[in-house]
Amino acid sequence: MSTALPPRPRNISNSKARISIVASKYNEEFTDALVENAKDELAAIMPHARVDVVRVPGAFEIPVACAAVLAGEEKPQAVIALGLIIRGKTQHGDLVAESVSTSLQEMAVKHVTPVIHEVLLVEDEKQAYARCIGSQLNRGREAARAAESMVELFSKLKHDPDSKKKLNRQFPSNA
Fold first, then answer.
1. Residues annotated catalytic, as ranges
2. Is 158 labelled a binding residue?
């Protein structure tokens, strides 16, 4: 687990990309903060982007809403999934988190669209506060930065005929 936010991009993006945020309402104090932090960060680093927000009841409903967004007429260049699961005394939270994680990854690969996964599984409200409201580990801001990075990368991969020359590829030394 990282202990600090990745750095903000050096250059402000001129992209007019469409970014969709799908966020749960459950644990509202924390999920509202995730959404606001993600929107604020996107406004700062991608000021020309269109940001749509879809709210769902809980974390379990996030994947199906993401699928609906990706199947829509106006497909976004990236989807940010935001939610919070506080681990309880049963395995329910772990099962929901595993299901959501698997579904989001499969969806990203199927649609060849970045799905930024910040549906957090935490032990308690102290961890939730640090990751959703605090400034050092803020996962809403981190999600926005990851979305911007992936939109820029996919723009190069899909639209630039010389992208193979420009991409910084690294291969294992033992290949």
1. 92
2. no
pLDDT digits (tens, 9 = 90+) for 83-124: 999 998 888 888 999 999 999 999 999 999 999 999 999 999
Domain residue limits, the chain = 18-166
Tens of pLDDT along 68-84? Answer: 999 999 999 999 999 99
d(CA 112, CA 125): 34
- The annotation status of 126 as a binding-site residue, yes or no, is no
> Which one of 1.10.10.10, 3.40.50.1010, 3.30.1130.10, 3.40.50.960 gives the CATH number of domain 18-166?
3.40.50.960
User: How much is the pTM?
Assistant: 0.85
